[in-house]
Amino acid sequence: MFPLRVFLVVLFGVLVMFQTFSLPGQFAHMAKESPDFAYLRWPATAVTVFWVLCVQVVIVATWKLLSLVENDRIFTATALKWVDAIVWAIAAAWLVLVGVFLYVGFNADDPGLPLLLFLMTTGVTVLGLLMVVMRALLRQATALRTDMEAVI
User: Fold this and answer.
1) pLDDT tens digit at each of 152 positions of the chain
2) Total domains, the chain
3) Are 67 and 8 contacting, i.e. CB atoms less than 8 angstroms apart?
4) Burial label, 54 (beta-carbon count in 10 A; 0-12, 13-18, 19+)
5) pTM above 0.70, yes or no
6) What is the DSSP string of 2-31?
7) Among 65, 59, 62, which residue's Cα sits nearest to residue 14?
8) Domain hosting residue 25, numbered range
9) If DSSP codes are grouped into helix, strand and coil, which group holds residue 32?
């Protein structure tokens, strides 16, 4: 568990740097280099910072779930709340991604970016549905553990 925690901290730190420095700076540079697309600077910054925020929510929830595993409390209502946080973060990111995909798809001259966004949308959809299945499994296991504790 320790290596995973180390990489979660590193990933979170890198994402904070992206959120505060890299993404706003990148879109400011793009607006300066391509004045025709300068109007997209702030919407693109807001959307990408939001996506990074969604990933950060998943990281924090994963950290909390790791703590519950270590304390043998993974089959509790608390764990379900953290899994729900992951599902909702993925759903929020997916919803914004679909909006971006539709906007780009209807305004693109080249099929490359819409195809990439379609691939990303499909991947996030699969990830979200996988988390819904995992949440259902956790609910079942929690109910079974509660029943077993009542019997014992």
Assistant:
1) 899 999 999 999 999 999 999 999 999 999 999 999 899 999 999 999 999 999 999 999 999 999 999 999 999 999 999 999 999 999 999 999 999 999 999 999 999 999 999 999 999 999 999 999 999 999 999 998 877 878 87
2) 1
3) no
4) buried
5) yes
6) HHHHHHHHHHHHHHHHIIIIIHHHHHHHHH
7) 59
8) 2-151
9) helix
